[in-house]
Amino acid sequence: MNEWLEKESRLRASIVVYPRVPELAAKEIERVGGHPGFVQVYLPVQSEAPYGSRRYWPIFEAAQKHDLVVSLQFGGSPGNPPTGAGWPSYYLEDYAAQAQIFQTQLLNLVVEGVFDQFPKMRIAFVESGWTWLPSYLWRIDKDWKGLRRETPWNKMMPSEYVRERMKFSLQPLDASPDPRHMQMLVDQLGSDELLMFSTDYPHWQFDTPEEAMPAGLSETQRRKILSENARDFYRL
Question: In a 3-state reduction of DSSP, which class is residue 3?
């Protein structure tokens, strides 16, 4: 904090906590959450249990108290396999399967009632990919309607919670290079406010700024993705 945030006013930081002990994680958020340089709480997406579980609610309570985003990011606890079929053999399989974990966390946060319990809670998905979102949201909305009785505390359809309370980093851009396909995907999201610019630099698989930005977007969409969406989400 003193080394970076006090010396450079343009920087913003994450509070890194240990989610396996939520009470101590909440204490760490309380300790530094009031500093204006911290804008989010970092949680690894691969966790011991889905984050909607009540055991993790002290983290969300502390984050909401300090008006902080909770950011789920690639990687995390090795205790659980990244696939529903068990442990894979190669890193390629683990890397590609991370999208499944993000999808699991997204739906679990909604149906466990995190957003109903914490009405100001905001969640960022970082390195999750996002081109899977349209079909996934269509499916869970359809199934949720048929199983509505299971989650009477939900006040909206799952996709509405996503569009109101979540954002997704642009990288990895796992989509066709055809601008027509990209514009179709953005339109299918049902909102031009879900995406935030990122490149994943300096990891080996990072995208250059030219590669990271989807082709075929309107100037309004580009402006929102490059700046406005993140500024609004993080209250900057």
Answer: coil
